[in-house]
């Protein structure tokens, strides 16, 4: 399948380029980057620093290159990801989107677009994190009503959004298990205040150094607590997951898919 990489110089985009370029089932046909970058027009392999020419070039105009691809892999910014969605809709292409930080309105538009083209959206493309979602569902169904639930996430100091997309998905899983709406029970930024409300989910975001990704969900009871934690030591698990997601999405019917569909988890 022919792959277009959005943001190939990014942390995720460069790893995805390296991994996709080694897969026998994938051919990278182009990259798309912001206007004015000095690597526009370069071979994507050289632009990313693989040291190997891939015979595919970086453009600053997605509409001029989109016809070459089957699937776009996009881990960039909310603004650019929305442009990618619209371009993919116009050209009838599939999109794997791993960008986080979308507004509710933007999510609604992605849902609308996915009625016409295949879209896989995942705030976290690690298969292990998606397994963790199942563990959280079980924990929330079993002890969620009798615990104080806190989500603590840590990322590198350059991350733009907070809380992380993953912690919002985790909260969503827990809220659904409790038959609640996340917006009714999520409490952000309670640090230093002694007003913990029963039945709420507390959110805590830490940003420091080059922490790749760490999520802990604590179910606090009296006399004991359960913590379920995932640590990523680098971003490779997410990039591997992005390529698996693209392979899954190739030739699929229009629809909104998740990593659960890739893994066959219900
Ligand atoms: N779903 C998941 O599993 C994961 C999701 N993420 C999410 O992915 C997103 C990207 O993260 P990360 O790689 O760390 O971020 P980076 O800042 O490292 O990369 C963002 C990339 O987007 C490019 N970009 C920005 N604007 C445009 C534009 N207008 N046109 C084309 N390209 C553009 C940048 O180009 P340039 O380099 O030239 O500035 C850069 O290459 C974030 O939302 C993050 O939260 C991250 C990890 C895992
Ligand atoms: O920006 C990151 O690094 C990550 N972002 C995603 C998120 O917001 O949850 C996924 C992962 O935690 C890495």
From TrEMBL:
Entry annotation: catalytic residues: 155 (proton donor/acceptor), 159 (proton donor)
Annotated Dihydrodipicolinate reductase N-terminal domain residues: 1-124
Listed InterPro entries: DapB_C, DapB_N, DapB_N_CS, DHDPR_bac, NAD(P)-bd_dom_sf
Catalytic activity: (S)-2,3,4,5-tetrahydrodipicolinate + NADP(+) + H2O = (2S,4S)-4-hydroxy-2,3,4,5-tetrahydrodipicolinate + NADPH + H(+); (S)-2,3,4,5-tetrahydrodipicolinate + NAD(+) + H2O = (2S,4S)-4-hydroxy-2,3,4,5-tetrahydrodipicolinate + NADH + H(+)
Pathways per UniProt: Amino-acid biosynthesis; L-lysine biosynthesis via DAP pathway; (S)-tetrahydrodipicolinate from L-aspartate: step 4/4
The UniProt record lists the keyword Amino-acid biosynthesis: yes
Residue numbers binding (S)-2,3,4,5-tetrahydrodipicolinate: 165-166
Cytoplasm found in the keyword field: yes
Binding site for NAD(+): 7-12, 52, 98-100, 122-125
Subcellular location: Cytoplasm
This protein's UniProt keywords: Amino-acid biosynthesis, Cytoplasm, Diaminopimelate biosynthesis, Lysine biosynthesis, NAD, NADP, Oxidoreductase
Superkingdom assignment: Bacteria
GO molecular function list: 4-hydroxy-tetrahydrodipicolinate reductase
Domain Dihydrodipicolinate reductase C-terminal: 129-263
Pfam family, one: DapB_N
Binding site for NADP(+): 53
EC number per UniProt: 1.17.1.8
Subunit-structure text: Homotetramer.
Function: Catalyzes the conversion of 4-hydroxy-tetrahydrodipicolinate (HTPA) to tetrahydrodipicolinate.
Family the UniProt entry places it in: Belongs to the DapB family.
Protein name: 4-hydroxy-tetrahydrodipicolinate reductase
